[in-house]
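Let us work through a complete example step by step.
Step 1: write down the sequence.
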Amino acid sequence: MKHVLCLCAVAALLLGCTAKSGKFQRPEELKFTAVQGYGLVGDVRSVEYEDYTINFDTLGNLTSVVWKDGGSNVYEYESPTRYKINGIGPFQISCEDNLRREEDEQGIELPFEYEFDNQGRVIRYAYQEYMSRVTEVYTYEGKENGPVTMSKEYGYETGMEKQENVYTYREWDEQGNWIQRDVERKTTSTLYNEEGEGENKTVVETEHLTEKRIISYY
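Step 2: predict the structure and record it as tokens.
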């Protein structure tokens, strides 16, 4: 999962008390961290994928997303729970029940939302990508940390797209995070008939992928 900055972002509301997370202390109101939102466990410093790297601080907050083509989103914190992205913001995070909500204080952009199950695993992630609202839904088997499926869909002016992923895990690290998995992906793209006559055009594509990542810890 990655944040796409289309003048949109994330943030937080800080109260005075703290709660322990791994080796570090974090604000109690940050019940769920960005590390958890990305489906990770432990005191994660960075995650390197094929195309980009995600970096976190010791509180589990996102500090940057750096793409290998040269682009980046840099998170500048005014407090552990309030920050700007590339100078835009500020943004706020609130955690209530099993939901982490990241909201633009100006109300211009749609919020990011992470919903977690009772094990603290992300089961729904909603965000804005360009002008579309995207929702990712995750399912699990037993108490495993890695999801077995992820589906996401979004609409745009002339159509919609739905993606379905089934994961098979090949390798885990000592912290319990996957570092290699196979993906069976099905993408269904629908193009609306703009004239209002006849059927919409639908294209289905399938592919097999192998995903790898390198995780470092504090």
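Step 3: interpret the result. The radius of gyration is 18 Å.
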